[in-house]
Structure formats: C-alpha cells, structure tokens
Write a structure and sequence with these properties.
It is built from 14 helices and 15 strands. With 371 residues, it is α/β, with parallel strands linked by helices. The longest helix is centred in the middle third of the chain and has 18 residues. The chain is globular and about 70 Å long.
C-alpha cells in the first residue's frame, strides 16, 4: 500500500481487518471512537459485521458470541468502558474464547479527563477481573506498530485461545504519522484446525501444548460453554480431579510459550550503568532522552517493552544484572515499576511518573540520571 498519513486508532482498525476480524461490537467512548468509526465504514466492504451496542458490557458479550459462531472479533473502549468489560473478559478467559479488546487509555479514575492521556490501566489489564487466569497485553509506541500489534493480538488470541488486550493510549491513538501498510494478503494468522470427529471432540481437553483446538458452533461440533468450572466437555463440575487439571493447564498455557509472545527491543551500550525501561507513549520520551544523553557522552541502555503481560521477567532481570539503576517513566503513579522492582529490587529502580494527563518529558529523565 502507498504511504498515508494515518492516526493510531485508524491503524488499529486496519490491523483488525488485515488480521481477518469480521465482527466488531462496541460503544463510542473517547479516545477510542475512531476505531469504531473506521470499522463501521470498512467492515461491510469485506463481508464483516459492525454493531453499536447499548453499552460496553453488551459489547464484550457480543464479540464473545461472534467468535463462538466462527468470526474473529474485536471491541475497543477506554476508561470506564474497560471497567465495565471486566466480568466478560473473565468469562472469555474461563471459556477460552479468542477475542481482542482495545483499550485506548485515558486519564482516570472514574470519568477523569476523557481527552487526556494516561497509562493508568496497566494493572487493570492484568488483574481487573476476579479470580486467577493469565492474560496477554500488548502496547504499541507508534502508529505503524499499532497496526502490527493489532495483527499480533489476533494471532496470539487464536493460537492460545485467550482474550488479548491491546493496551494503547490517547497519544498513540490520536497521533498521526506517515505509514506504509503491508499487502494484507501477505499477513498470516494462526488458524484453528480441528482434526477430531464431532463424536470424539472435547473442547477443553488437555493437549501436549495445553491449547485444545476450538471448533465454532454451527458446523456439527457440540459442546457446552459455561463460566462455571467445567470438565473437558464444558459441563459444570465440582470434582477436584477435573477442576485441578483445568486450573493447571489454563494457568500455564501462556507461561509455557513465553518466548513466542515476548515482544521487546533492546538498545544497549557497553559499560552503561543506567537504563531506561518503558512502553507505550512514554517510551517515545525515553528514546528522545536516550539520544540527548548519548549526545552528551553518557552511556545509557534502553529496554522497550511491547509485551506488557505476561511480564517479561527474564529480560528485565537480565537488565538489572547489567546496570546499577533502571529509570521507569510512566503516565501513572508507577504501575509497571512495581513489576520492575519485584525483579531487580526497589533500590535499583527510579520512578519518573506523571498522572495528570501530561507526558513525562525528556528533561525529567535526564534529571533522574543525575539524581
């Protein structure tokens, strides 16, 4: 495709179409609405369906139902809408139904400031639902990467039968950059393949890789779907010999494939004793601060995380062994910094945070190197 000036939210919509998304349900909310606007216009052109729901609870339920029926599906929201989706995100995790949820973060809590940027939903993306289950959350730092990580979100969702959160923010969502998108025909997404006969199919059985293939309803495969603990056929159970294997499989199926979903970028210098670690829009600030610091002759490392959850413990721990101080800029009060501190110790971590809707500045990071 030719180079176009495109904003991040539009890139997310095009990424969904390129990945094969053919169903979108959502409710307008700033600053994510452009995702819905683009898909409302473009999805019918490729045989897809768009529906505006009455609220975010119904939106999440609708994309779950659509995927059970065989259509790759997505919704997008922000702030209060993401909070409303949590119960059904937990349902999708419990029932292992693939789907993609875009959260264009805005300032909170509550209504906050709808047009102000934030990274305040990092912990909510991981722990927003009740109960224990793993989650995948990806965070782009540019418009082109908003496209690429949307495609990746669908791929990982299908491969691991799990909801995936695209955790972007108002800055990346609304910024415009020149982007050249790939030919959509070259994009390959994991495809569910069921080789069993309908008579022997078990939708939740254990497999060598921990991920049983998913057959959509309507093609002859019959199984039960419930938010209750269930056996291999999907029917509710209170038997520990059925519940415990399910818990073990679902809560390790991502852990056993971390290398496949670990997306990050390292920019290291020999002899550096200080490092920036960041993600999303704050990583753009950190990259500029990195250039300024190196122009002054200072040695600085940088680790940019594109996968937020599962947390990249191995990469962060290795960085902690390289340097004496890790500076973590965030547009919140230090949510991901908790995880960095857990891996390398609090004394090694310097938080540089803002939670008022404004970005962390490069000068704040340069000052943190000295302080």
């Amino acid at each position: 495709m030719s180079v176009k000036l495109m904003q991040g939210n539009d890139a997310i919509g095009w990424g969904a179409i390129a990945a094969g998304c053919r169903f979108y349900a959502g409710y307008p909310i700033t600053p994510s609405t452009e995702v819905a606007e683009l898909l409302a216009r473009e999805l019918p052109k490729v045989g897809g369906k768009f529906i505006q729901m009455e609220d975010e609870i119904a939106s999440m339920a609708a994309i779950i139902g659509a995927r059970v029926g065989g259509l790759m599906s997505m919704t997008a929201t922000s702030g209060p809408g993401f909070s409303l989706m949590q119960e059904n995100i937990g349902y999708a995790a419990m029932t292992e139904i693939p789907c993609v949820v875009v959260n264009v973060q805005r300032l909170g809590p509550s209504t906050g400031q709808p047009t102000a940027a934030s990274q305040g939903d990092v912990m909510q993306a991981r722990w927003g639902t009740h109960g224990d289950h793993p989650i995948i959350a990806l965070s782009p730092i540019s418009v082109r990467q908003a496209f690429d990580l949307t495609v990746k979100a669908f791929d990982l969702s299908e491969k691991y039968r799990t909801p995936v959160i695209l955790l972007t923010d108002e800055i990346v969502g609304h910024m415009r950059e020149p982007v050249e998108l790939p030919d959509f025909k070259t994009i390959k997404i994991f495809e569910q393949k069921v080789s069993e006969s309908p008579a022997t199919y078990k939708a939740f059985r254990n497999t060598p890789d921990g991920i049983p293939p998913m057959a959509p309803f309507g093609i002859g495969y019959r199984y039960h779907i419930t938010g209750l603990f269930h056996n291999e056929d999907g029917f509710p159970t209170q038997r520990f010999d059925e519940i415990d294997p399910w818990l073990e499989r679902v809560n390790t199926k991502l852990e056993n494939h971390l290398d496949d979903m670990a997306l990050f970028e390292e920019d290291y210098q020999a002899g550096a004793k200080v490092a920036f670690l960041s993600y999303g829009a704050s990583a753009r600030t950190a990259r500029h601060a990195l250039k300024l610091a190196r122009a002054q002759g200072k040695r600085v490392d940088m680790l940019t995380l594109f996968t937020i959850w599962p947390f990249l413990e191995k990469q962060v721990e290795a960085l902690g062994e390289r340097v004496d101080r890790i500076i973590v800029p965030e547009m919140n009060l230090g949510q991901l910094a908790y995880e960095v501190e857990r891996m390398v110790g609090r004394k090694k971590v310097k938080r540089v945070v803002r939670a008022n809707g404004e970005m962390v500045t490069p000068q704040m990071l340069l000052d943190a190197m000295e302080g």
